[in-house]
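Dear Dr. L.,

I hope this message finds you well. Following up on our conversation about the binding site, I have prepared a predicted three-dimensional model of the protein together with 1,3-dihydroxyacetonephosphate. For your records, I am including the exact sequence and ligand specification that went into the calculation, followed by the structure tokens. Please feel free to forward this to your student if that is useful.
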Amino acid sequence: MRRKVIAGNWKMNMLPNEAIDFINALAPSVKNTSNETILCVPYTDLFYSLLTVQETNIHIGAQNMHWEENGAYTGEVAPEMLKCINVEYVIIGHSERRQYFNETDETVNKKLKAALKHELKPIVCVGETLEERESGRAEEVVTMQILKSLEGLTAEDLQNVIIAYEPIWAIGTGRTATSEDANNMCKTIREKIKEKFQSDDITILYGGSVKSANAKELFTMSDIDGGLVGGASLKVDEFSKIVNFDK
Ligand code: 13P
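The resulting structure of the complex is given below.
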């Protein structure tokens, strides 16, 4: 379902006490927004965060999960383990997981199906490298990622999926895609999804060096429905301004 969403991705940062303090400080400043506010926190913060967001309009997500139901997968976390403590969202296929932990479009697809089966809402990440962009292959690469990642899903499934377009060269670099480039790619993704599923009613976020200074310009583009925010989601004031970009 298409709507405005601002999701923070804390990556491997924040201890439980810091998570609790952060949420308590953020909650009053986002309580009147209609933009959906999500924090994707480390596993060890999930339970504390879920308790702290009760009676707020902040939603909690994990940053990864395995696709199997259970079994001998030391160190992994199963979908039901997230679901049973009321985790709502899960990031799938972040470029850092693809780069450092060998995730592929095939594993992303398995995780996506497992998440939907357990009624977790996936935030699926796609994006090209600098080399792919400079060689003019960005659209082709992202289109393939989308088609392979979403293989086997139905239009109805898409109602619970969020796509995040995160060009890898813009992540943590301070280098943001221009709003036109970011919008063009989000538009391409929407068109490809429409061709495949006969529906483009899907939320598509931009991620990569989003900050309060560029949030409004990016999030008011025709095909960008909000952002997946890394570094700037670790500071309460900055993240609150990003969530309230339209105020
Ligand atoms: P930055 O906002 O730090 O560039 O990170 C983006 C990101 O990877 C969010 O998932």
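In brief: The mean pLDDT is 97.

With kind regards,
A. P.
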